[in-house]
Amino acid sequence: MENTNLLFFAATVLPLICTPGPDMLFMASQTLSGGTAAGLRATAGVCLGYVVHSALVALGVAAIIAASPTLFGTLRWLGVIYLVYLAARLIASSMTSGKVTLSMVTSANQLQRGFLTAVLNPKGMMIYFAILPQFMQHQYNIALQASILSAIFIGLCAAVYTILSFAIAAFDARGRFNDHRRRWIEAIAGGLLLAAAGKLAA
Predict the structure, then answer these.
(1) Where do the H-state alpha helices sit in the chain?
(2) pLDDT (tens digit, 9 = 90+) per residue, 50-99?
(3) What is the radius of gyration, based on Cα positions, of the chain?
(4) How far apart are alpha carbons 169 and 59 in whole angstroms?
(5) Comparing C-alpha atoms, which of 3, 167, 131 is closest to residue 57?
């Protein structure tokens, strides 16, 4: 592949990555509720989720999903339901006073949740199913090109979300939570996930 083509692809997807969407809002919610480590685990999960999309593109399965409005719509609504479920858990926790157990509640499954958020994210699907193929050149190996372009996209996601994780956590009071603050943070995090679900539904 030509280097100019790779640079053009990176320039095309970077603004999309930087636009707030389900992945970014999920990462932000986890960072708010669990600090930098939680945000980084969520970021790792998101990146792993996009590895699945990469494999689908390389195998040609992405074309089948993209050509089926019913299948694509089903995946989109599964994403909406999943994010609403996570938001409901955070909001319910924010309404319960008591011992601060924030890290215990949120740290166990951040990797898995980030993975599912990315796999079910229509924005990510469209990048892989509609945008990425436009940068493939027929004279080169398709699977290899899909892998290279995917690596660029995943690398940019990892870089942007890692920076944001540290930036968001920088506003934290170095882990000194009290119950009142914990409830507010979980409510805000739940609201972010509801906003992400709204984006998917729209």
Answers:
(1) 3-18, 22-34, 36-59, 61-66, 69-94, 102-106, 110-119, 122-126, 142-169, 179-201
(2) 998 888 777 776 566 656 778 667 766 776 786 687 778 778 877 876 54
(3) 18
(4) 38
(5) 131
